[in-house]
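From the shared-data thread, chain only:
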Amino acid sequence: MKWTGQEQTLQQVWLDVFEGDDEERPVDELTALLVTCAILERGLGDVYVFTAKSQSPSMLKDILSSKALEEFLGSDVMKVLQLFLGPPSSLNLRNVAWHGFPYPGEIPFRCILFLLVVIPSVGHILQRKLGEGQITHREPVMFPHTRHISELKVLQDGDEICQIWDTRLVSWDTHLFWNKVQKLFGKQRHSECCALLLYYLEQGLRAVYTSVNDCQSRLLTAEATALYTTLDEILNPYLPNKSANKIERVLGHQFLEMILDHVSYAKGPRVRDHLSHGEASWQEFPGELVDNIATICFVISAMFHKQSAKSVVPDGKLCQLWSDVQSYKVQFHRISIIECQICDVFKSLSDTERAVTTNPDLTERNGALNIAEEASSLIQRCKDLVLLVERHWPDHKLANCFDFNTFGKCCHILETDFCLKTKTLFRECKEHANMESEVLSHLDHVVEECLVVVQNVQAFVCSRQQQMQAKLLRSRQRENYRKFLIWCPTFCVCAATCSYLCLWQLDTLDSLHTEPAVKEKKHFLRFWKTVLQFCENLRVYSSPDRNKWVEGADLITQIIDFLKANIQPIVLCLCDDVANKLSWYL
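Structure, as tokens:
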């Protein structure tokens, strides 16, 4: 087993099978099947990388059909692996199990036991081929930090778990399943715990999907001649026949997006994909991910409790869980990520303002920073742009605190009072989604550039102030630092203005799908592309190896001129839904 790099995990799951509680044996066998398949897939991928000297295929069936492994391990070995693990015309154990088709104990133990024979057999071949050589294992994926759905931890309370044993979500008795999940969680075997929960979740979601869409024949379909009903289909807004998927009506918008946040969105943890393909670390799996998947499974089980035909949310902690689910804020949709990055820009601006302790005349700052007259005029022009937008976007007032000395207030408003009205669920499937995707791509890059500009400014001021306090600044450096202090507020306010416009565009994304906006698609994209080019140049001027503050100020003047000439028709089109064509000269 050593060749897989996961010897300890394999030993644990198989010891549970042979030495664990007989009553829990079916769940232990299922756990061993899920974990062993994932580890075997990752290990065979490592062998492929070693032999083919190229990136491993992402699908197990492609790894098993590769010429590189056939030549290295032998055709007989590969045929046996294909027979049990893939492709769909075989037993296909990996896909059948990970997509949640069997109930615990349904797959014959001899099939599961076969995997225990395969791993050391492959290891023996590798030892014979490589001698003392070792297979190099790829690094596991790093999951992004994930906020807890709820402060309540359902797996730590056995009494609460008992309430959902009698769920109609799945067709078998779940109490032994939940007992095993709790035991694994208590032993901090988070990855195995999460594997079981994901299996359960997909099986339950499939049952709901087939029921509400009146396609019960798809419930048990796991055959070579028909496509599986997997999460991709279950979480799609449309059925294969292009009619609407009714699962949202049953589960609700918020709950469905919470699932997508954890298993589907590209920038999210995509926990099912990473864990099922063996890409995650089995020893260092994030506990917050297990908590969240457990909360999702717990709540959906309560929705389909046998006590009522309707969605049931019993009293007590479940009420709190349900409230937390309803107030869940999407974290990993690309719109949410850009919104979060904009908040990061304003946080960094607030930090930068506090970091500047010297006035432009190099005297010590006392209270608000003294803004040079030449910089004040540019800052006021930026505020005028913000005021122009706010006249058509009245719910979000930032202009009053849109100043270098008051970015802390902006940051507070964004964190406490601001809420995007743009809905993120199934946006990628809407008409004209390509246009929106291109705009979002530009917004993403604009905000990234703005953040780098502010970080460059902050790093420069911290470095120069330390040098000045240590009396290490040469005369030319002192002059450059003085120029920086004159134009530093302008750099910051310009970055804030571009980020603010990105925030406004996020909140008015739905208007991009109106007829006037669609007609002017090229102009919208050209506008944001030009803004991005300005921000890229500003980042270059503020970079540590350039420090071109006066030249940067000239560029900022150009940015403001461009925005003043072009932002009003955009605002009118998106906020007032004006049907006239836009007269832009970009």
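Residues 154-326 form one domain.
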